[in-house]
Amino acid sequence: MSLSPAPRLTAAAIVAAGAIALASCSGGSAEQPTGAVDPDATLTVGLQLEPTNLDIRRTSGAALEQALTDNIYEGLVSRAEDGEVVPSLASDWTISDDGRTYTFTLETGVTFHDGAEFTAEDVVATLDETRSDESMIGFPSLQAIEKVSALDEGTVEITLSEPNQNFLFLLTGPAGLIFDADDTTDMQTAANGTGPFVLEAWSQGDSLTFTRYDDYWGDPAGVADVVFAYIPEATALVAAGLDGSLDVLTAVEADLASQLDGAFELAEGETTDKFILAFNEQAEPLDDIRVREALRLAIDHDAILERVGAGEAQYGPVPVLDPGYEDLSDTISFDPDAARDLLEEAGVDDLTLELTVSNTYPTYLSTLLASMFADVGVTLDVETVEFSTWLNDVYSNADYELSLVNHVEPRDFDTWTNPDYYYALADEEAFDEVRALYAEAMRQTDPDASAELIAQAARVVAEQHPADWLFTRSDIVAIAPGIENFPVSATSTRLDVSDVTVSN
Amino acid sequence: MLRYALTRILLLALGLLVASAVIFGALRILPGDVAQMIAGTEGTPAQVAAIRAELGLDRPLAQQYVEWIGGVLSGDLGNSLLTGASVGSELVAKAQVTIPLGVLSLVIALALAVPLGIVSAIRRGRPSGTALTVVAQLLAAVPVVWAGLMLVVVFAIVLGWLPAQGFPRAGWDDPAAAIRALLLPALTIGIVEGAMLMRFVRSATLQATGEDFVRTAASKGLTRSQALVRHGLPAVGLSIVTVLGIQIAGIVVGAVVIEQVFTLPGIGRMLVSDVGERDLVMVQGELLVLTGFVLIVGFLIDLAHHAVDPRQRERT
């Protein structure tokens, strides 16, 4: 999960949005590029969410993965914009018929940024360390591994205790990144990877700077330098775009995007960011499925999408980009009358519920929900907290009634199979069914059959109304003329800029 | 004088010690912890516990406090829980933005407040004096955030004279760019703080007008303005210094806010994000240094007062 980029100073943002709207007619006239690609160019990308430190093995966070994966660090495999698993340090791999043994053929001529050679031993050492040290972020992901061994200098074999359909995908995340076994780099503030860029500088609270790694084993990066400029306030980010200091802006607020139109090309990318309104099934009267369904019936998803300005409706736990997606709009509709009837049937009136929401999200979401719930006779008290408080109260202690949070991780359906997760299903029969279906899906060796089982499990979850999936976020990316190949999909967790070129 | 200074230094040290305990205690009341932030929403409870143990957060609070204070006394503010960076060197790095910002803000505030305050006092009752007072009242009431955004719209976006946000990556290696980056934020704080200071200068000037020695001077043939400038203002100067002490605290607070608005990598911005991430060792160090700064400014002003004002000297 990450904090959705949203203004800390919302009131100020509204004032500035209006003011910038007035002023924008005079802003940002881009120079016309001549068309020649400049290999010495610097690419400056404006982002909202900065990594908290650079130790990708020991710190979770979408911003960290977004910046460092594929650019600085590489895994055996990586993933394309559409979520498909693609080769990286492993040029090729085979999976045994029983789905338990993965044999990876490694790329040759790979070196770490400090000059050390990349070997099969590095793969074994890294994966063994990650799966045995509980404080490592990748630790849970690698528990399926029984053994990792180097067959020869260029081949690594991984044996799983049982087949795991998700295993290769897990290797595309932080759990699968490969580090130099003998490295002594302080990973909190420096980096030593095999990727197309070298970490040049980190100015905390401001920017990350990468430079092209000249000895890179693959195709050299398209630009000489990359600056990830972190500008948390949505309006300040747009202002920086307008004053010409950025080549690309990611995660632009839909409200503000029109200010950039003309000077930038606006692209809308898909993400796996799910805005989940979770209902605590342990708390009365939310333990009554009729009450949960009534709340979902009261939510006008079209109105939310219209206000958010970009994104798509999502009626179940699986977003479009993930395996097992199907349209579950038949499981719920917008029907305030039916909601009122159900609440009456459940015998609740004068219901007041508390919504715990992190202050990193725009307040209009809670305001919209409060008015929709008020329409069916439910009072919504909005408790706005810091993200760290949310993590403590809601995530760790499940001490909440309603919670709203943006879960960005791709393929995170397994949260619905964790009985201790903050939004766990209370209905034992349904929960057991979901668990069994998902476990079966993971054991499948055929991806399609696996996806089919996940879809079935997702339907069971959706019909329990444990949460409402308000929407899947779309990422608005503003790209200046002359910038080519900038990724636009799933950029909140992965932003590979090695192919990007700049024309002058 | 020496005895007075020594007493004040002892009080200052005591103040800092109390502040350190309050800071340490107050931060421990905050819900959530950095281990949870590090583990994120994929982290298991066992993972969070492992991270807590590794960071030493599972030790008794008293032990953590004593170790922290011990470090501070030997000049070591500790290391960030999140990044491992030294708190001291991070503070030094960020101070290179915040201190120039504060100084520039103060200069702007003074440059506005002193002449305009005196003019508005001299012209009391006349339309120009009233207009100045009203404008100062209005500006002093403007929230710093709003003032900043308005300046951005006018000077950065419409006119394009100054950058809308950020600090040059080269830092002070490029002094012109660094100063350009600080101008709008400093102007924002300077105008708002200056408006408050101006009201004070005006009332202090008016008060001086009523003092016997000014009236005596006026009776000897000087005009009221001449009497005020020659005899009244030196007396006003001292009380302005006192108010400046309070203004400096206001500027520190203003810097915390304005660094957010202008995305300046200074101490204020660092403080806000460190609190959010529960990097308590960083926050402790930052707050202690800021508290120390404000206390020391107060101490110096008291000392200056004591040295200049004979009435105070007699009392000790």
TrEMBL record, chain A:
GO MF term list: peptide transmembrane transporter activity
UniProt keyword terms in alphabetical order: Signal, Transport
Highest taxon of the lineage: Bacteria
Location of this chain's protein in the cell: Cell envelope
The keyword Signal belongs to this UniProt entry's keyword annotation: yes
Pfam families attached to this UniProt entry: SBP_bac_5
Range of residues in the leader sequence: 1-30
BP GO terms, sorted: peptide transport
Annotated InterPro entries: Peptide/Ni-bd, SBP_5, SBP_5_dom
Every Solute-binding protein family domain range: 84-416
GO CC terms: ATP-binding cassette (ABC) transporter complex; cell envelope; periplasmic space
Family the UniProt entry places it in: Belongs to the bacterial solute-binding protein 5 family.
Official protein name in the record: ABC transporter substrate-binding protein
Organism: Microbacterium faecale
UniProtKB/TrEMBL annotation, chain B:
SUPFAM superfamilies: MetI-like
UniProt key word Nucleotidyltransferase: no
Protein name: Peptide ABC transporter
PROSITE patterns referenced in this protein's UniProt entry, alphabetically: ABC_TM1
GO biological process, one term: transmembrane transport
Gene3D superfamilies found in the cross-reference section: MetI-like
Organism annotation: Microbacterium faecale
Membrane topology, from the record: Multi-pass membrane protein
